[in-house]
Design a protein that fits this description.
Blueprint: H1 2-9, H2 13-21, E1 38-45, E2 47-48, E3 54-55, E4 58-59, E5 62-64, E6 71-75, E7 82-83, E8 90-98, H3 101-113, E9 116-118, H4 124-132, H5 134-137, H6 145-148, H7 162-176, E10 203-209, E11 212-221, E12 224-229, E13 232-235, E14 237-239, E15 242-244, E16 251-255, E17 258-263, E18 266-271, H8 282-286, E19 288-290, E20 295-300, E21 307-308, E22 313-319, E23 322-327, E24 332-337, E25 344-345, E26 350-355, H9 357-360
Antiparallel strand pairs: 1-8, 2-3, 4-7, 5-9, 6-8, 10-11, 10-18, 11-12, 12-13, 14-15, 15-16, 16-17, 17-18, 19-26, 20-22, 20-25, 21-24, 22-23, 24-26
Helix pairs in contact: 3-4
Length: 362
């Protein structure tokens, strides 16, 4: 990776390429190049380590990249831009240079801690965990290091983060309690702050966390919503350009009516439930094959009416140079197909329904 070489040699290799392509000679010979210290590069990707590093796409609602002594960032994405399924999922290269390998890794870890990406899920928390991994630090590693330490590196499905969920719900309520549109600024009816006479009592809430509806409770404290989920209680206050928790290192970003919550680089999305969505039976939902990522349906190996076996490959979705095989969840018959081969499909889109054989026969 040329930024690492450039960091330790002090030469601009890309500029050299242009000069040589223009007919010039090499500015320096090999024996004139010295090496100063150590450098390490992290490739910040739009991917989700908890789902096998599947690519993640969508609008970049917030982007803050690091800076500081010995830190370089080469970025190809801007805040407000879009990460599409058509290209490489890399958002940026973050390079750290130091006198020693440990100093370079410390600077890289600190830089990753300053990095904020809201929208597509990223590997920033995974990269930071890798910087601190004991064997990697001791230079005692091989290509199997990640597979042996998936859970420790945060690359397995995570349990509900109740504190982050409660904070996200508080952000949603706070967003909704902004002054009512069109009402006179001096009107008490323009302020939705839940003022009431008598004792304050918790109000039940239903919110959606990454596609799953859960129950919460909310009460007002000092004109701010305080939300409880399980044993976690959080409020939110706006400190431009983010919502922040007064009690913990949580950041909230408004995203088209939803709240994106970031905690140590890990992201969840909190929304109000979609009660208008069509109701699907639990059996049908369990037998549905959905797209794990935004991409193109490059292959469809079955047609309606075909009999399939559990774990049989039925389709392939491709995004960002990665193909992902879709497998039948049960033995059964293909009841319906909702997309054509070659079509672009959204993450979570229901593509194929498999009916148990006894239900699919006539």
């Amino acid at each position: 990776e040329h930024p690492v070489t450039e960091a330790i040699t002090g030469v601009d290799l890309v500029a050299w390429q242009f000069r040589i392509a223009s007919g010039e000679t090499l500015p320096l010979m090999q024996d004139q190049i010295g090496i100063d210290g150590h450098a390490v590069e992290a490739r910040l990707y739009a991917e989700d380590p908890t789902t096998g590093f599947l690519p993640s796409t969508g609008k970049v609602w917030a982007l803050r990249l690091p800076s500081g002594e010995g830190v370089r960032v080469d970025a190809g994405v801007e805040e407000g831009g879009e990460v599409t399924p058509h290209y490489d999922p890399m958002i940026a290269k973050i390079i750290a240079h130091g006198a020693t390998r440990d100093e370079a890794l410390d600077r890289l870890s600190q830089a990753l801690g300053q990095t904020i990406v809201a929208g597509p899920r990223t590997n920033v928390a995974f990269l930071r965990a890798l910087c601190a991994q004991r064997d990697f630090r001791a230079q005692d590693f091989d290509t199997g290091l990640i597979d042996r330490n998936l859970e420790a590196l945060g690359a397995t499905p995570r349990a509900l983060d109740a504190r982050a969920a409660a904070f996200g719900a508080a952000v949603l309520v706070a967003m909704k309690s902004a002054r009512a549109k069109g009402a006179p600024a001096h009107s008490p009816w323009a302020v939705l702050d839940a003022f009431q006479l008598g004792a304050n009592s918790p109000t039940p809430l239903r919110i959606n966390i990454d596609g799953i509806d859960i129950d919460a409770a909310m009460e007002w404290r000092d004109a701010r919503p305080m939300v409880s989920i399980e044993n976690a209680r959080e409020s939110a206050e706006f400190n431009y350009p983010f919502w922040r928790s007064p009690n913990s290192a949580l950041i909230g970003v408004e995203a088209d009516g939803a709240a994106i919550v970031l905690r140590d680089g890990v992201q969840i999305i909190v929304r109000w439930p979609d009660y208008a969505a069509s109701v699907t039976s639990s059996a049908e939902a369990g037998n549905a094959i959905v797209s794990p990522m935004h991409g193109r349906l490059v292959a469809l190996h079955v047609k309606t009416g075909d009999v399939v076996k559990k774990n049989q490959r039925v389709a392939v979705v491709e995004a960002m140079k990665m193909e992902h095989a879709l497998l039948a969840p049960i033995d059964g018959r293909v009841a319906s197909i909702s997309a054509q081969e070659g079509a672009q499909v959204a993450q979570g889109a229901r593509l194929i329904i498999i009916a148990p054989e006894q239900e699919g026969t006539t």
